[in-house]
Design goal:
single chain; Rossmann fold; 16 helices; globular
């Protein structure tokens, strides 16, 4: 089957052809016809199967054929997704597929300011892609109205459940009109999601697509527990191993890719970055340098990595774990090609534990935990999975965050600003914004301040004494402080942040 057999408009077909798409995936061929007929849909499909186009294409076609005038603050099609990264990707897909249809798509998520998002919503939008927390915030501020929604799509429903957003989803659904079309996509169908589907859908068409979870047996998968601030140093340390001769490093964001690349270059490691802000010619030049061995390391985002087709990649490093488990499978599949063996190395900080668990559920096995190399040690000693303890960087980070949140909540009378009631958060790299429901920011908003470095414990004690504070007990063993980061004590005066 080809796309021109799915009753899509000439404009959509031209946009698909421009992007190089001719044949629909199974989830697309099974989902698009019933959605165009106005039926509700319950689809079990993983990310990487083409499910975004499965709902974006028919939504765009139906909106393009309907009334064009938008009422102030109104929304015609609402797409809910659990994380900022997914929201941005879905928004970009609507823009790409909907070119020349003159429909307005807006993406809202936490961790950024409200004003630009309110301005975008003020004149009304055709498609709104949103995370639950920020949408509830804007609804409370009366910055958006959902009474005009005709198509409601809930994406990654099982991840909504894992992240504790089902209650928020139900609140939002209760504000939608009863006469609407609802599409629900979920990688898995636990009982809670089936109950949610029963309450939201009316006589749905059911679509099920096989999961993409196979990983080549000749890929050695390893994970290091490390604090976020120490990831760059760990990457430098493991790259001292000369056997890592052609390394592909993945980051979540374009800015992160540039930052990692600059750090490697300053250390004398030849590295180049490719991402969406690079021109096509610059990306091709970087790929050619990496292929010819001129650059030892290539730092890439997931979107930019689609054009990488190189057989001799020895190692894949997940500098940041992906939010979508299937993306992990696609990433590490870049190594161990053409019958060769390969190694994948993943860095996991305290806030990425949920992503790691999701990946392990998809793979149906735990990843092998490695001890973080120390000193001048270049080898990568193996160890079995072990419980997190006081010697684990991620464990220290998690305990500090819990302590900071507990302390800050007491000072604020128990209100945890920026957190959901479930204690879960959606990840977002930006650092502004707020609000009671702004759970998708994924930010620690306590008064803890990081990043102060002291050359040794003595100078740290002198510095504290000068401020009239009691010396805090060092978190490091004797002789270690010269190479560690020291976290300054919190200023505990009420209503004041250092």
């Amino acid at each position: 089957m080809r796309f021109n057999e799915l009753n899509l408009s000439a404009t959509l077909l031209a946009n698909l052809e421009r992007e190089g798409y001719e044949t629909p995936t199974p989830v697309q061929s099974q989902s698009i016809p019933p959605v165009l007929e106005g039926r509700d849909l319950l689809a079990s499909a993983q990310t990487g199967t083409g499910k975004t186009a499965a709902f974006a294409l028919p939504i765009l076609q139906m909106l393009a054929g309907g009334p064009r005038r938008s009422m102030p603050l109104s929304v015609k099609a609402l797409v809910l997704t659990p994380t900022r990264e997914l929201a941005v990707q879905i928004g970009e897909s609507f823009e790409t597929y909907g070119k020349n249809l003159y429909l307005k798509t807006t993406v809202i998520y936490g961790g950024v300011g409200y004003v630009p998002q309110k301005d975008a919503l003020r004149r009304g939008v055709d498609v709104l892609v949103a995370t639950p927390g920020r949408l509830l915030d804007l609804l409370e501020q009366r910055a958006v109205i959902l009474s005009g929604v005709s198509i409601f799509t809930l994406d990654e429903a099982d991840r909504m459940l894992d992240m504790g957003f089902i209650r928020d989803v139900r609140k939002i659904a209760a504000l939608l009109p009863d006469r609407r079309q609802t599409l629900l996509f979920s990688a898995t169908m636990p009982d809670e999601i089936r109950e949610l589907a029963d309450s939201l859908l009316s006589d749905p068409v059911r679509v099920q697509v096989a999961a993409v979870s196979a990983v080549a047996d000749n890929i050695d998968q390893r994970v290091y527990f490390v604090e976020k601030a120490d990831k760059q140093a760990l990457l430098h340390r493991i790259l001292e191993d000369s056997r890592m001769d052609r390394v592909l490093v993945f980051t979540r964001t374009k800015h992160g890719a540039d930052r990692v690349c600059r750090g490697l270059s300053r250390s004398g490691i030849t590295a180049e970055a490719i991402h969406g802000n690079k021109t096509q010619s610059a990306r091709l030049r970087s790929l050619d340098n990496f292929r010819r061995g001129v650059s030892r390391v290539l730092v890439a985002t997931d979107v930019a990595s689609r054009g990488i087709d190189i057989d001799e990649i020895s190692h894949v490093v997940n500098f940041e774990l992906p939010d979508v488990p299937e993306t992990y499978v696609h990433r590490i599949g870049r190594t161990a090609r053409a019958g060769a063996s390969g190694i994948s190395v993943s860095f996991c900080d305290g806030r990425e534990r949920g992503s790691l668990k999701a990946i392990e559920r998809l793979l149906r096995r735990p990843l092998e935990v490695r001890e973080t190399p120390a000193g001048a040690e270049l080898a990568l000693p193996a160890s079995g999975r072990r419980p997190m303890n006081e010697h684990d960087g991620a464990g220290r980070n998690e305990r500090r965050e819990r302590g900071s949140r507990s302390g800050s909540q007491k000072r604020r009378g128990g209100r945890g600003r920026g957190r959901s009631k479930t204690g879960n958060s959606e990840r977002a790299p930006a650092a502004s914004g707020g609000g009671r429901h702004d759970d998708d920011a994924g930010l620690e908003r306590g008064p803890r301040r990081r990043g102060e470095r002291y050359p040794d414990e003595a100078s740290a004690a002198r510095n504290r004494s000068g401020r009239g504070e009691r010396p805090a007990r060092s978190p490091f063993k004797d002789g270690e402080a010269a190479s560690k980061m020291y976290i300054a004590p919190q200023n505990r005066r009420r209503g004041r942040r250092r």
